[in-house]
Structures are given as C-alpha cells and as structure tokens.
Amino acid sequence: MTIEIIDVTILAPKLKHPTIFEKFDSIEKGEEFIIHNDHDPKPLYYQMIGERGNVFKWEYLEEGPDFWKVKISKLKDGDAEPTVGELVKKDFRKAEVFKKYGIDFCCGGKKTLSKTCAEKGVDVVEVIKDLKAIDLVETTLGSQDYNNWEIDFLADYIVNTHHKYVTQANLILFEYTQKVARVHGDRHPEVVEIAEIFMEVMNELNCHMMKEENMLFPYIKNLAISKRVGKGVAPAGFGTVQNPINMMEHEHETVGEMFEKIKSLSDNFTPPSNACTTYRVTYAKLKEYQDDLHQHIHLENNILFPKAIDIEKELLNN
Question: 103 is in which domain, residue-wise?
C-alpha cells in the first residue's frame, strides 16, 4: 500500500500545521503518512504532543541537510508508547542513550519517554534520534538477551553477578570514602557527606539483598519451576508476590535517590584537578557502582518482577 506524502514546502506557512493535523485526524488507527519538509519539523512534534497526546509514532526517514522526511503513524489501541524501562528491556544498549541524557531507566523506568523528557527538560526528538541510531547498529555478540531468560536463571544471575559485586564493592568503597572524608574533608566538605550517604546506601542494600535472597527470589524460582512442570503454587506467607515486590521497588527508589545525591555532590564523579590517587579511584569506583546499580535495578524492576507477577497470576488462576 502506498503511503501518502504531504509536501509541506509547497503549503502556505499558515496552512502547514493545520493541514498535517487535518490529515492525522482523518486517518484510522494503524495508518500512517509522510511529511516532506525543507527544515526539521521538530516544533510540529511538540504541538502534536500538546494537542493530541501520546497517540502517534514519530519516525525520521531523512534528516537534512536539504530535506527532512518524517513518518507519522496513528497508534492502534494497545500500542501505547513504551516506557523507558520497556525500551531498555528490549535492547539494553539503549541504556547508554538514557545515561547520556540523565534519564533514569531503572527506578524511573515505568514512565514513558515523552513524560520523562518533559519532566527533565530534555529534547525528546534528539533522544528518539539517538535511540533510532542504536536500532541501525547490529547487536554485538557479547550482549545478553535478558528478556528471554527463564526467571529462575535470571534471579540466580542477579545474585551471582550484581549482589556479589555490591558485596565486594561495599567493602572497598566504605574504606575509600571514609579515608577521603578524613583526609580531605576540611577543604572539600562534600566528601564528608558523600561518605555518610554511601554508608546509608551500603546498609540499605545489604538488608535489601538479604530479603531478596532469603524470601523473594526463592519464591520466584519456585514459580518458574511450577510453571515448567505444570504444578500449582502454594500461597506465600506474604500474600501475592506483588507485596514484596512493592517493597523492593520502593527500596530501589530510595537507594537510587541517595546515589543521585552522591553524583550531584561529586559533580558527576569528577575529582578536583589536584586530587590524590585515592580520591580519584574513589570517584571512579562510585561511578562504576552506580552504573552497576542501574543495570541491577533494571533487571529486577523491568524484567524479573513483571514476569514473576504474570506467572503467579497464571498459576493461581489455573
């Protein structure tokens, strides 16, 4: 089927946007058209978001320097704009784009891209362009398709990879942050606060991981086994799995906010120009810790927990 192309360049200025809106309103859900323009029609995107809401898909086909082509599709029912977490769940490489713009894809992963960008004052069209560029690059052999893993395997992976990392890094960073605060706190009072906040993070995560490993993850693994063998699942003492998951997600958000405070105090983990080696290593390690935390929380909030909820509902309804 041929897609209609609207050549915006031949329209009078006052008719450009009204013509496109009229066309959009006339098409059925699932249909699309292309606009051809001699400059980036980004202002139109924002006008459509403001006046029609998240009911369309905006896809650049050509991006200058002389002409721009954009395909505008009207979403079908059920084709709602994906959340930030869903985008990363499908392709973890997109996490790097969100990091570039300071977008939280783990604790804030349940918000749509449009809403997140609006809240942060980020240009959503530029983010979409960068995400599109990721789609054009073949996935590297080393990347992991976490979304297709069985949830019991994923739970074990989280414990053996991310919980293990946190346990080891906590010991190192507790020592380093305390030392930097002790030696440099007089001239750089922010490092004293960083040391205090990191101690809170460490204590919070130690308790958090213990609850996951002793209570939640064993139940999730049992859900996976029960589904494979076709058996029902015995009710848990905590009610449905949604209850402990709510608690875990709240704790994720708390830790995420604390680490954002560390990031802000450290000027995005940037040590002073005359910082000693320990000072520099501490900031580098804190950045590494936050990067690991982002993936750790993403795997739980956006993949493991939703799948566990769905499997439990399926088993309880049979």
Answer: 84-135
